[in-house]
Design brief:
Blueprint: H1 3-15, H2 18-24, H3 29-43, E1 48-50, E2 55-57, H4 59-85, E3 92-97, H5 102-116, E4 121-126, H6 129-137, E5 143-148, E6 155-170, H7 199-208, H8 224-232, E7 238-241, H9 245-248, E8 253-257, E9 263-271, H10 277-289, E10 296-297
Parallel strand pairs: 3-4, 3-5
Antiparallel strand pairs: 1-2, 5-9, 6-7, 6-8, 6-9, 6-10
Helix pairs in contact: 1-2, 1-4, 2-3, 2-6
């Protein structure tokens, strides 16, 4: 039995799916499946009940999963002992960030962290919220920068700043007015939205109150950059987080501020068992000390 085997066990229990667990552990699904079979043979027990549609933890498996979580937390603690002797944020730190934040936060956050903590070895991973939370649960990330709230009773969260939304439309349309955009006005516009899985898509649909006002056609974008290009061509309109508005101003796009309170709250999330919570708070402090204009510290 190895620590990697324990990570596989915890990942499967967290995700209830071998494929998602394999992706969270950066391993091929057949490899994970074979290792679990070997572990079950070694232990002489069945850890998981498998069907074509689901994976559930057996009674004995639940006990082993709990012990595996405890062991992995203790390993984290052991690893942190030596790291703490060299000072705060002076070791490897793996940080996840969602795609609608990464291009606008990392260019100023990374230099600030390098300046304040030169011994920090920052490992970055950009992904959607769900995969990032999966990696947190399987001890593959130390923390993640996401839009709040997030599910998970084994996670801690720290709200950092509020980011207002702006309405973006092709230049020359009526929407080019600088007048504040009200939520009910959005229902008159067909919006270009990110593809499923992006929290920004769900937030935009929640604000609009319906999923039926998307732009015509089967358009799905995986980045705000692509959506901005499509808005500039006249394909439709969209909602932009404040930090993305700088890119909009360089294109044939007009933007209007949304009414007060329309936006998202950004924060850090990490495992409750994470052994270096001080590092999380130092990271949060550095981030909040260098916030760009347009966002508001919580």
């Amino acid at each position: 039995m190895t620590l990697q085997d324990l990570r596989y066990v915890v990942a499967i229990a967290e995700h209830g799916h071998f494929g998602r667990a394999a992706a969270a552990c950066d391993v091929a699904q057949p490899t994970l499946s074979i290792q679990i079979k070997h572990l079950e043979a070694q232990l002489g027990v069945k850890l998981f009940e498998r069907t074509t549609k689901s994976v559930s933890v057996t009674a004995v498996g639940a006990d082993i999963v709990g012990r595996a979580r405890h062991i992995l937390a203790e390993i984290d603690a052991i690893m942190s002992v030596g790291q703490q002797t060299s000072g705060p944020l002076a070791a490897d730190f793996s940080l996840g960030v969602i795609p609608t934040l990464g291009p606008y936060v990392l260019p100023w956050l990374v230099p600030a962290l390098k300046r304040d903590y030169p011994a920090l070895r920052l490992v970055l991973r950009e992904d959607l919220t769900a995969p990032l939370l999966e990696r947190l649960g399987s001890h593959r990330l130390d923390a993640a920068l996401v839009a709040l709230p997030v599910p998970g009773d084994r996670l801690e969260t720290l709200a950092l700043f509020d980011e207002p939304f702006w309405f973006a439309a092709p230049k020359g349309r009526k929407a080019a007015s600088t007048k504040i955009m009200q939520e009910d006005e959005l229902r008159e516009h067909a919006l270009l939205l990110l593809t499923e899985g992006h929290c920004l898509r769900e937030q935009a649909l929640a604000i609009c109150g319906t999923a039926e006002r998307e732009a015509d056609g089967d358009f799905r974008a995986t980045s705000l950059e692509t959506i901005l290009q499509m808005v500039a061509t006249g394909l439709g309109s969209t909602l932009l987080p404040a930090m993305a508005c700088g890119d909009a101003r360089t294109r044939a796009v007009s933007i209007r501020p949304m009414a007060a309170g329309v936006g998202r709250r950004i924060g850090l999330v990490w495992r409750r068992s994470y052994p270096r919570p001080r590092d999380i708070h130092l990271l949060a402090q550095t981030l909040c000390d260098h916030l760009p204009s347009g966002v508001h510290r919580v």
